[in-house]
Specification:
Length: 107
């Protein structure tokens, strides 16, 4: 008879999550990529690609320096508050602050 994908053990890829589902997972994960990727059952790399394709989402490295500096001042240097305000991961924003010399040696 006819051989189907199921017959040879090949599983068709699952439907990718909708943009709305990705946004919801990112918010629920407090913008932490690893947590959101686990929630969406996808790799971190795949999630980064999806973030690039969704205009409302971004990573800390893509935020203009002036916006990063403004969040730093408005949040009095509080990394957690600034990350939530900018809607990016704390780790990503920490790397960005370090690259911009906004962090003290204590970090």
């Amino acid at each position: 008879g006819t051989t189907t994908r199921q017959d040879v053990g090949v599983v068709a890829p699952a439907q990718p999550p909708s943009d709305q589902r990705v946004r919801e997972a990112m918010l629920a994960a407090r913008w932490e990529i690893s947590r959101a990727a686990r929630e969406l059952a996808m790799s971190r790399q795949a999630l980064y690609r999806r973030i690039e394709a969704i205009p409302e989402l971004r990573i800390a490295a893509d935020i203009p320096a002036a916006e990063v500096e403004s969040a730093y001042r408005e949040c009095s240097g509080n990394l957690e508050q600034a990350a939530l305000r900018l809607q990016v991961s704390r780790a990503g924003l920490q790397r960005r602050w370090r690259a911009m010399d906004l962090l003290s040696d204590g970090w």
